[in-house]
Specification:
Layout (H helix, E strand, L loop, with lengths): L1 H8 L1 H5 L13 H14 L2 E2 L9 H10 L3 E4 L2 E4 L18 E6 L6 E7 L3 H4 L5 E4 L2 E9 L4 E6 L4 E21 L4 E20 L5 E6 L5 E11 L10 H18 L11 E6 L9 E6 L7 H7 L1 H14 L22 H15 L6
Parallel strand pairs: 4-8
Antiparallel strand pairs: 1-3, 2-3, 4-5, 6-7, 7-8, 9-10, 10-11, 10-12, 12-14, 13-14
Helix pairs in contact: 6-8, 6-9, 8-9
């Protein structure tokens, strides 16, 4: 993968820093709610007690309505016969997880789970799912029962789902404006629909087939970091050139952002809008693909200059002439005659100049 290639080509990154950079947002309502259930199971809450936030008592009242707690005197007592820790996944914040079931043998077994927002991307029918190095193909995704049925296969390709995303900004938490280029972090509403999937050949990354996906649309409130650009930049004069630059920059950011987050590439998503309905300008969004956000986009907002410096390094150090899956993406994703690597670099350089950092 491009991420593996970067780490191998930059050993100082691996050996020169702490390997631990895990992120979590303790104020994420889903995470907070789960923590409070476990805390209430261990010890009753007092009426005036806070659990890190001012809304503690409101959450406790909600738990009472859900018949998890009982309010007696000035205390909230656990009343459910459920052990709350059993219902909490260490891999996902969301509660509505999909169970992945291996049906290769007569005795079926559960091999994993994923959250409901990732399921359409990873577990649509005919998707290739990898568990402990073994390839599986998804035979059926039962959306109502939240179960995916997989069977062992041995194929020379992987699958990549195409996600149509509509993104709407709800609130801006932080903002830094420049002369034409700005960066922001805030809350967004993401509406996503998986429309199709591609079969990508291992090693060569050739597209060797495709198929439709018929699954319901998904909505999610999360957090996002976004960078807004002017409509024209030096060397990027037309809408087509701007779109090519945004495509290339989206691909390289998707490849390099996980380096700083200790996350799976699927835990974040990068989308672009040639004319954003919010900024009215070309805009790149990087959002947490988990409900409420867990801190990924906020971290990237803070690492703005370092992130784009790494993106530039990925493009310039790649040996291809005009684009490949290891940098800006394969040539068939672009239109026109202009070299997409050059267009992408013109956007990156403009962003770095705005940030006050010279080219590397």
């Amino acid at each position: 993968s491009p991420l593996d290639q970067y780490i191998v080509s930059n050993p100082d990154y691996f050996f020169g820093r702490s390997p631990e950079n895990g992120l979590i947002n303790p104020d994420n309502l889903t995470i907070l709610y789960s923590h409070m259930k476990c805390a209430a199971f261990e010890l009753p809450f007092e009426d005036d007690e806070k659990f890190g936030v001012d809304t503690t008592q409101e959450i406790l009242s909600y738990m009472e309505e859900a018949r998890l707690l009982r309010h007696v005197g000035n205390r909230w007592h656990w009343m459910s016969d459920v052990f709350p820790a059993d219902e909490i996944s260490l891999r996902s914040a969301a509660n509505e997880n999909f169970i992945i079931i291996d049906i290769s043998e007569p005795h079926h077994r559960v091999v994993g789970e994923t959250d409901r927002f990732s399921a359409p991307m990873l577990l649509h029918e005919e998707a290739i799912y990898i568990h402990e190095g073994q390839q599986y193909q998804v035979e059926k995704l039962d959306f109502d029962d939240k179960k995916a049925y997989i069977r062992k296969v041995d194929v020379d390709y992987y699958t990549d789902a195409n996600l149509a995303v509509e993104l709407k900004v709800i609130d801006v938490f932080r903002e830094e404006k420049g002369s034409g280029i700005s960066r922001n972090w805030g809350e967004v509403m993401v509406t996503a629909l998986v429309t199709m999937f591609k079969k990508i050949k291992l090693h060569t990354h050739e597209n060797i087939g495709a198929g439709p996906v018929n699954l319901p649309e998904m909505e999610m409130h999360t957090t996002s970091y976004w960078v807004s650009l002017p409509e024209k930049l030096p060397g990027v004069e037309t809408r087509s050139e701007m779109q090519n630059g945004l495509i290339g920059l989206s691909n390289v950011l998707a490849n390099c952002a996980p380096i700083y987050l200790m996350c799976d590439p699927h835990d974040i998503r990068v989308v672009y809008q040639v004319k954003s309905t919010f900024t009215q300008n070309p805009t790149l969004y990087i959002y947490d693909s988990l409900p409420g956000g867990v801190g990924f986009s906020e971290k990237l907002y803070q690492l703005h200059t370092e992130l784009f410096s790494t993106a530039r390094q990925m493009v310039t150090h790649c040996s291809c002439e005009a684009g490949c899956p290891s940098c800006v993406g394969p040539l068939n994703e672009f239109s026109g005659d202009k070299n997409p690597k050059e267009t992408t670099l013109q956007l990156v350089d403009a962003i770095l100049r705005e940030a006050g950092k010279d080219k590397m």
